[in-house]
Structures
1.
Amino acid sequence: MNVRLFPGMLACLLHLLAIAQRPDILLADFEGETYGDWTVTGTAFGIGPARGTLPNQMPVSGFRGRGLVNSYVGGDGSTGRLVSPEFTVARRWINFLIGGGMHPGQTSMNLIVDGAVVRTATGPNDRPGGTERLEWASWDVAEFDGRKARIEIVDEATGGWGHINVDEITMSDEKMAEEIRTEPLFDESYRPQFHFTPMRNWTNDPNGLVYYKGEYHLFFQHNPFGIEWGNMTWGHAVSRDLVHWEHLPNAIEPDNLGTIFSGSAVVDHENTAGFAAGREKAIVAIYTAAGGTSEASKGQPFTQCIAYSVDRGRTWTKYAGNPVLAHVAGDNRDPKVVWHAPSRRWIMALYLKDNDFGLFRSPDLKSWEHLQTIAMPDCAECPDFFDMPVQGKPGVRRWVLTAANGRYVMGDFDGTHFTPDGPPLQVDYGANYYAVQTYSDIPKSDGRRIQIAWMNGGSYPRMPFNQQMSFPCTLTLRQTPDGLRLFRMPVREISRLRGECASLRNSRLTPGKDVPLPLQSELWDIEAELDPGDAAVVGLRVRGETVAYDAKARTLSCLGRTAPLEPIRGRIRLRILVDRTSIEVFGNDGRVSLTSCVLLRSKDRAVAAFAEGGNAKLVSLVGHSLRSVWKRQDR
Ligand code: FRU
């Protein structure tokens, strides 16, 4: 087909091209010591832009450069107003970063034309918890083209989330805020593409992690009826490779003993409970019946119960003699059971109350005897208890007790008593790593200790599901200069998702000159080795976020969180997994990790290395793009 270009069309095209190429106009980046020609009233905004997080504030992230507007000066109680000088609207969009309270009119940024508020925006938070992260917002201001306008940033709120954060106000022909896609299912804008999420509705803790006959089972705390926590039920999915998941019907549902809180599952190889039928072994789930959390269980205490399946986890029968462990203390919950072969007994670790955890023993999963109570400072909920080999020391094993926050103690266990070596240690430093649990019954020929965490607290605006799991990690115990430590690294099966790859080797990194990988991707598996040289900071820019190693402080940071990390022979090794809503960073082969949720912009797809305050060396950088696990052709 021939297409003729008429002169009028050509002029129109040229005009469009010219518009598309017009540079942005910066209205304010708040990088100065003062607010310059903006007018400040009240106390909430201080006398000049903030330099990040203020005292007693959750970590503020997502702003550009060093400064931003942060009206938390003096806490939530303070009020004030910040008004821009007059400017002429000269582009279609006004883009800005905004965070803080969602109190329309009270914590807001407004556009004023002819004395009237014609556009307004707030932060995302209207309840406790939430996030201090700034996100892009965009106003379409085409109708005000050529008109005089002002921006005012208002903080009149004095209660919870009574503050507002703003940065990088720009007039542009391009919209910065994301268009949120709410379908198709599993390809929505904020659907993780290689992390587990429920098909619909809420999840929190991973439960009942058990391997049986080629399948990794993942049960999970689930609200089948809502996008927020409630009606706790065990949802269910299985995988043959820890990467691709098949969603199955819910496994265990609430009854008159309570809703179904967290717990574990084991294969009863020796049929100690007598549930086995025919050639199938019984998988037994040990869970908390959370009495009093539903109409049907009013007045009941929290107890521990069991259910079993003799059809590879497809259907579940609750044991008629439930509960198997009566109420012990507080809201005791989250039983994790392990087979102790030398004594031929099951051992249960159970959260009791405050910082107390209990160990219990049973011959048959049906009757339990209390062995010990262990206090773990700063720890609560979801214990895990297992023994592991020490790497490089054939025949040497240690028992490890972990709590929901992933902190752990190592020690000796003789079948009746656990003797911890010292106070709890920390492996993950990210904001979203909780309710950790490891797989039971991984075959001896594999021998791995595989852990999944709930990435608690991420936000998934307008998505049909809520919350995600961490990528499964292999735990190892390794000798370090500080003593024996738990390391965590992504399971090797991730390599099944790798697509295109780009790499750089032996590049010099100088301040102000990022060195990008010649590949763009939404999903990444990145490996890097960096020699900080005489740089103050060296690291990677990953889809618009920064993973930074501070050579002087010897710390690794990402998304406002920081982990201590010593270089090894002068170098730092990084492994970074990037999905649509998360960044997981592993330093020095898993000596520390930073597990964090974030909403990444679909347009930001680049990875680059950088150095600040001196020169550094990029020893190697390898970036693999990853395929979605939800695309049919990958199954
Ligand atoms: C941890 C937790 C558990 C409890 C479950 C309820 O996140 O509070 O202690 O069993 O969630 O959903």
2.
Amino acid sequence: MRAENIFEKHIRRDTLFKGSREALYPDYLPDYLPHRESEIDRLAEILVTALRGEKPSNILIYGKTGTGKTAVVRYVGRELLRAQEVYGHKNLEYIYINCETVDTPYSVLQNIGNYFIEDWNKKIPFTGWPLDKVFTTVRKRIDEWGGIVIIVLDEVDKLVTKSGDDILYQLLLLDNEMKNSRLSVIGISNELKFTDLLDPRVRSRLTQEKLIFPPYNAYQLEDILEERVKIAVKDGVVREDVISICAAIAAQEHGDARRAIELLRISIEIAEREGANKVEERHVYLAKNKIEMDCVSEAIKTLPLHSKIILLAVALSEEAGRPQLTTGEIYEIYRSLSRRVGASPLTQRRISDLISEMDMLGLINAKVKSFGRYGRTKVVELALPVMEVKKILFEDELLMELNNVKLTSQKKLFF
Ligand code: ADP
Ligand code: MG
């Protein structure tokens, strides 16, 4: 008998999604953004000037992650360009740049400049030109083109933290240095304190208009999720109670719409893999655990080597029946383990710092415990299941060879 093709059972399985599953992915831009009507209207009110051929005010937008800043700004840009076709007086460009990836003055200018250079041979190269040559080319090109440019710098705080605010200053001044064109900047930041980093001249120009996006509450998140469910999921698969739970969980975690949508998507995927025909409450909790475990796993993977060794020391001790350790005990085990992998041990003081850092990340719990007349001391224990932690740690090539290490009850290592 012919073996079944490995895909067959998956193909036969009914999907719970409609064709448009991408509506549950972060990049999807819906046609309707519930509970952002007033923010959208405010932006339209400011930017309409561009349709009359004049420069709109610069705008600074801030709000926590997942409050719809990127979605709203992209949405407004799309609508603006549509309106331009009907009502526009002059040329208009709306340039969206995400400064998380485009994070140097050179790359910001290069991105802007190349919008206005059609000839591939004349485009500004990725690297190599002196910055002032890039700048003058950009200015010349925009001015020759003649029109209104709106430049959106999303996650602008990342750009400023990395490269300072000179580039913002230059862009904001560029507007006065051209004859035929005008330029406005919309900056978006997750960080409220970001403006403290700015030179007062930059700050006052950039914040001609300010918009704050508040976090969503549970009811608002429900409406957002409902819209997505209509587009992405078959009828009857996600009932209202499931939407409410996803919304409630995300509302507790700072009202982040991205998290709410992700939670819903993973819940549906888990239900689908199980062969269920609708999503149940328990699928949502499984999804929540999965997301948390993924975050933890990411946090562990990106730790520096010495922190990983400390974590391994605590894990091994728990396996040997001693879940709680003092910093001194950890240090002893840590030292032997480091030598084993050929890393020279750091000082105990440094290790204490690394322990505190991992405590803040929620990977371990460190608390001060009283030992009667012996005084008080800090004890440390793992905050996560030991098997999971070991599995993730041993993915690191440098630690792999410690795979068979055990700890004796005398806290000695054996292999
Ligand atoms: P921010 O830029 O503030 O971090 P995003 O705009 O990226 O947040 O929003 C996160 C996710 O939530 C995106 O997938 C976005 O489409 C969605 N979203 C945010 N606000 C709304 C809303 N009001 N209606 C529908 N979807 C939204
Ligand atoms: Mg964003």
